[in-house]
């Protein structure tokens, strides 16, 4: 073990054991004792509480296709950020990087996957929420998770209760709240790739009507691919830190105010883009030193320029060290936010709520991931290695009022008003950092000033504004028939959506290209549910949703596009059987999407021009989702889930060539699934816990305009822990765990780009290799 890693281990373990000196603060807490022996009789599965309908309900009684990942699941899979859910642990949920950058995540559900939603005037198709607060941008979503109680994955359009940009579904993160009772949890761990993580969560004793909680998280990992240039960052590394403080004021039983504020810093580097092949079209290869034709980087038609002898093509093997050294520094996402939740219950039949929130995210992107493996194509004495530099700044404000209640024993309802406003701006530049010598046997680093603000040649700069207002309501009626087994839910949301933007710079020339759009629309929902028994029910659902339109800031003309809309039909079954030892949830759905937003790109030199168009006709998405659990014994639980997705988009005109061509849904495998097993049993006065999961996904497309696919993916994660280890009276309970992600060290290309196969070859990005480590947890 490296000396630096040993030092980190000592420091982190020391942090985790800080609990010992503070036992005096815990005098009011009960003394921890060893766990009671586990009953050998199989127990039923626990009920799961969700808030998908804006009220707390049992997952099995909620007629929506929902997957839930709780805090235990997150620990078992060593999930440090949403990026770690990209392994497919929830089959219907697809998470990947935008390009190869960890600073912006693409999140999709049921074939609704935005390809390039990291522009100011672009929107996501899946809404991401933290404690009911909408996070409007892809940027910042890779930040460290701060004490998550559960992640609810709501599948299908959620336009009625969650609003715009939830046509594929919603990803709702629910955090742990202050309790007013002293408690402390500390986590410290180290692993391979120079990784380390630590957490500290403290619940302070209540002071009068006030309860306080503080959460701090650090998660870091070294590069997956080393950069051979001395002093520069490697590729696929991250350093994520977050801090949140909460205060809960509860002056009476019927009023609660929760105020929270958080800050986060996500430093990361992109995954290395490497050539997967060279000259796949079988052209005639001419020497690297061949003359340049007409001042361009190409050679005569039918030929392809050979590679420098320094360039390695390792095909389907992940490169652990770059062949070309390049300037590379951290991309940095800074996130900040504050939210105030108010709850007032004048009586048992109604609760009034208010959610006020402000958030912003600032990003400085540094992305030099290709060396000589990506354009610009290498020529004698020519510049190469495109450094994608970008700034991104967003701030948002939202206000929501809700009324949640019941009218007698027959009607449950929720209604609300919503307001959202944001301003987003960005800029981008693509200088080249390296330069070949005359025969490609060496290279030098060019003047660094074009990479610095004030000296950059700006490819684009834009600003966009969004303002959305909505009124919504939903009610569930249980008529006095069929022994109260029938439930009818009707809801709707009316939205006023205004957007405008300006593309201020194109190719370093000031412009005045604008767009302005207003959309008013109504999104209905109707669900009919029937209880077959007390523990089994079926439902049929119709709902709609939409993703707002906008304009492409990568376009030379700021081309605008219309909103896309989805109408969805779903039937489902939810059941607990065999004394609640077996749980099975199933859904079959059909979604018809119109005005599908399709991206087409054209790479010329170092510039990537992207146009977004609305596809003609109707995109048809059909699918099946299955999810089950089986409590086999008192110690052993199995779980499995599966998603089938079939999507077909009408052929669409390529805006660059005018040709009608086939287009595809990106990052949506036809078949995906996961299986897992969990074991828990007594062990010498403590508790042994073991977990293993295996996740599979078919090959999928990286781009809507290309038929070429990524690799199929298979990953296995595992964790073994000895928990509930007692210390002295009043001391902490300890847990020691060994964990591994991608245990079998599977290698696959998760993003494959054929844009330059005629002049170079396909390049791609690989998944993270096997990671593993040891972790210590201490809790009072």
Count of DSSP H/I helices = 2
Helix content: under 10%
| Overall pLDDT score | 92
Number of strands: 45
Rg calc: 27 Å
Q: Summarize the biggest pleated sheet.
A: 22 strands, antiparallel, barrel
Task: Name the structural class.
Answer: mainly beta
Q: Roughly how many Å apart are the termini?
A: 31 Å
Describe this entry's structure for a reader.
The protein has two helices and 45 strands. It is an all-beta fold and 780 residues long. The strands form ten sheets. It has a 22-stranded antiparallel beta barrel. Strand 35 and strand 36 form a beta hairpin. The chain is globular. The N terminus is likely disordered.
Question: What is the fold's blueprint, element by element?
Answer:
Elements: H1 3-16, E1 49-50, E2 57-58, E3 66-70, H2 71-76, E4 93-98, E5 101-109, E6 126-130, E7 133-135, E8 148-155, E9 169-175, E10 183-191, E11 195-207, E12 210-221, E13 238-252, E14 255-268, E15 274-275, E16 284-286, E17 303-305, E18 331-347, E19 350-367, E20 383-386, E21 388-407, E22 411-429, E23 432-436, E24 443-445, E25 458-477, E26 486-506, E27 509-533, E28 536-547, E29 550-551, E30 560-561, E31 564-577, E32 582-594, E33 597-604, E34 607-614, E35 618-631, E36 636-648, E37 652-653, E38 660-661, E39 671-683, E40 686-697, E41 713-725, E42 733-741, E43 749-753, E44 763-766, E45 771-779
Parallel strand pairs: 6-9, 16-17
Antiparallel strand pairs: 1-2, 3-8, 4-5, 6-7, 8-9, 10-11, 10-45, 11-12, 12-13, 13-14, 14-18, 15-44, 18-19, 19-21, 20-23, 21-22, 22-25, 23-24, 25-26, 26-27, 27-28, 28-31, 29-30, 31-32, 32-35, 33-34, 35-36, 36-39, 37-38, 39-40, 40-41, 41-42, 42-45, 43-44
């Amino acid at each position: 073990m490296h000396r630096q890693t040993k030092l980190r281990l000592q420091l982190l373990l020391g942090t985790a054991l800080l609990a010992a000196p503070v036992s005096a603060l815990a005098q009011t807490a009960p003394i921890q004792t060893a766990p009671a022996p586990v009953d050998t009789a199989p127990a039923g599965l626990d009920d799961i509480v969700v808030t998908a309908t804006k009220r707390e309900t049992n997952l099995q009684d909620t007629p929506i296709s929902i997957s839930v990942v709780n805090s235990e699941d997150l620990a078992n899979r060593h999930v440090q950020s949403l990026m770690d859910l990209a392994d497919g642990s929830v089959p219907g949920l697809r998470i990947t990087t935008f390009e190869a950058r960890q600073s912006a995540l693409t999140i999709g559900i049921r074939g609704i996957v935005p390809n390039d939603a990291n522009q100011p005037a672009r929107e996501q198709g899946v809404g991401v929420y933290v404690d009911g607060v909408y996070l409007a941008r892809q940027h910042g979503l890779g930040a460290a998770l701060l004490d998550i109680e559960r992640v609810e994955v709501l599948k299908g359009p959620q336009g009625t209760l969650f609003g715009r940009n939830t046509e594929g579904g919603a990803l709702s993160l629910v955090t742990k709240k202050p309790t007013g009772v002293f408690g402390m949890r500390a986590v410290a761990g180290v692993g391979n790739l120079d990784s380390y993580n630590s957490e500290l969560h403290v619940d302070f004793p209540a002071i009068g009507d006030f309860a306080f909680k503080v959460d701090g998280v650090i998660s870091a990992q070294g590069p997956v691919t080393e950069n051979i240039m001395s002093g520069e960052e490697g590729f696929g590394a991250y350093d994520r830190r977050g801090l949140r403080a909460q205060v809960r004021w509860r002056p009476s039983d019927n009023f609660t105010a929760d105020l929270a504020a958080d800050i986060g810093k996500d430093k990361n580097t992109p995954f290395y883009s490497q050539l997967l092949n060279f000259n796949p079209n079988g052209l005639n290869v001419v020497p690297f030193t061949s003359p340049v034709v007409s001042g361009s980087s190409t050679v005569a038609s039918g030929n392809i320029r050979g590679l420098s002898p320094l360039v390695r093509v390792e095909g389907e093997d992940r490169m652990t060290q770059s062949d070309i050294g390049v300037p590379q520094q951290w991309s940095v996402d800074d996130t900040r936010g504050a939210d105030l939740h108010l709850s007032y219950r004048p009586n048992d039949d109604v609760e009034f709520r208010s959610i006020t929130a402000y958030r912003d995210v600032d990003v400085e992107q540094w992305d030099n991931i290709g060396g000589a493996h990506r354009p610009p194509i290498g020529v004698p004495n020519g510049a190469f290695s495109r450094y994608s530099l970008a700034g991104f700044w967003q701030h948002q404000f939202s206000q929501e009022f809700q009324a949640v209640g019941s009218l007698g024993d027959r009607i449950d309802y929720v209604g609300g008003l919503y307001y959202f406003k944001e301003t987003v701006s960005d800029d981008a530049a693509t200088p080249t950092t390296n330069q070949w010598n005359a025969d490609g046997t060496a290279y030098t680093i060019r003047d660094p000033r074009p990479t610095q603000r004030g000296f950059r040649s700006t490819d684009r700069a834009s600003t966009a504004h969004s303002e959305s207002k909505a009124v919504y309501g939903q009610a569930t009626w249980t008529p006095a028939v069929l022994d109260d087994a029938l439930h009818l839910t009707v809801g709707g949301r009316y939205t006023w959506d205004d957007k405008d933007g300006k593309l201020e710079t194109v190719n370093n020339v000031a412009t005045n290209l604008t767009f302005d759009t207003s959309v008013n629309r109504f999104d209905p929902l109707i669900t009919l549910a029937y209880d077959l028994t007390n523990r089994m029910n079926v439902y049929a659902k119709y709902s709609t949703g939409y993703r707002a339109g906008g304009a492409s800031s990568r376009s030379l003309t700021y081309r605008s596009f219309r909103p896309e809309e989805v109408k969805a039909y779903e039937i489902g079954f939810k059941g607990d059987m065999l004394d609640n030892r077996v749980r099975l949830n199933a859904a079959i759905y059909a979604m018809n999407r119109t005005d599908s937003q399709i991206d087409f790109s054209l790479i010329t030199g170092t510039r990537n021009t992207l146009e977004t168009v609305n596809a003609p006709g109707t995109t048809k998405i059909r699918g099946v989702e299955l999810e089950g659990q089986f409590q086999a014994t008192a110690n052993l639980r199995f779980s499995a889930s599966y998603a089938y997705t079939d999507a077909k988009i009408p052929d669409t005109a390529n805006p660059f060539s005018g040709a009608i061509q086939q287009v595809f849904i990106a990052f949506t495998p036809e078949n995906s699934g996961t299986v897992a097993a969990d074991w828990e049993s007594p062990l010498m006065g403590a508790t042994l816990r073991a977990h293993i999961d295996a996740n599979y996904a078919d090959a999928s497309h990286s781009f809507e305009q290309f038929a070429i696919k990524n690799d199929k993916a298979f990953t296995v994660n595992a964790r073994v822990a000895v928990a509930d280890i007692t210390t002295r009276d009043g001391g902490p309970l300890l847990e020691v765990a060994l964990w591994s992600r991608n245990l079998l060290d599977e290698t696959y290309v998760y993003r494959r780009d054929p844009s330059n196969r005629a002049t170079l070859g396909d390049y791609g990005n690989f998944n993270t290799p096997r990671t593993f480590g040891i972790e210590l947890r201490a809790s009072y």
